[in-house]
Amino acid sequence: MVLLPLRCLFWGSLLTAVHPEHTACREKQYLINNQCCNLCPPGEKLVNDCTETINTECTRCKTGEFLGTWNSERRCHQHKYCDPNLGLRVQREGTSETDTTCTCNEGLHCTSNTCESCTLHSLCPPGLGVKQIATGVSDTICDPCPVGFFSNVSSALEKCHPWTSCKTKGLMEIQVGTSKTDAVCGPPPRIRALVVIPITMGILLAVLLVSACVSESPGGEEKWPRSKRLRLCVRAPWRTRRILCPPSPLLRCRRPYTAASR
To answer: TNFR-Cys repeats span which residues (predicted)?
Structure first.
């Protein structure tokens, strides 16, 4: 029973001697030559590793360079270049600790999260409205127009518009709206009748007047007495009389009766 603990102690000491334990460095340190050295802070790069008597030597990144984390890097990273030929512009200038941020010019958006190039905003076609306007880093988001709304243009800005309310305008709906077209309004049937009837009567009266005048022309037959034709011309609406009863036909209508004309 005594030999077992002694054997365990022996083998444990032997393994410890053969495989020495690695040194564990603290946070913001790195291991080099079995020694823990301090990392360089953001904005600085490593010049020389530490020794038993000297601490880690770091230096500031140059203009146009940066390092954004605690590091043991010997070179700083170059700031991103926002190429105007690709539609890019600087959104935020870089520092020794941060990189330059690029965005796209007006009417364009980034093609990726890293914004290496730009492309035109998408247009929402008819039947779709803009749900979210595009930005320098995101494209247009379109949404179908719901019932009662329409969009009849391709646009990167226009939302869906509500159909025209014919009832509020005292009109009746002649054609129902769709997602691409507005509702079409028109006058009620009674109002339409009040407009159509006088026009129809005016046209019929004009036809009668023309027929009466033509019958008095050479070779024509007389269909109405002279007095009746004159009454028709006089009683006709002013505009109809002016247009369809010019002086020359009226003069023909007023010619005195002769035996030949009868």
So the answer is: 24-58, 60-102, 103-142
| Tokens read off for 76 | 């700083």
pLDDT digits (tens, 9 = 90+) for 36-49: 999 999 999 999 99
Q: CB neighbours (10 Å) of residue 161?
A: 15
Burial of 132-160, coded b for 16+ CB within 10 Å and e otherwise, reads: eebebbebbebeebeeebbbeeebbeeeb
Which domains are assigned to the chain? Answer: 25-78 (2.10.50.10), 84-120 (2.10.50), 128-186 (2.10.50.10), 189-253 (no CATH)
Report how far residue 235's alpha carbon sits from residue 212's, in angstroms, rounded to the nearest whole number. Answer: 14
Half-sphere exposure of 84 (CA within 13 A, CB side): 0
Confidence of residue 142 (pLDDT cuts 50, 70, 90): very high
Assess contact for 230 and 191: CB atoms under 8 A. Answer: no
Mean pLDDT in residue range 136-154: 94
CB 150 within 8 A of CB 179: yes
What is Dmax (Cα atoms) for the chain? 166
- pTM assigned to the model: 0.51
Read out DSSP for 150-175?
A: E--S-BSS--PEEPP-TGGGT-EEEE
Residue 87: is it exposed, middle or buried by C-beta count within 10 angstroms (0-12/13-18/19+)? buried
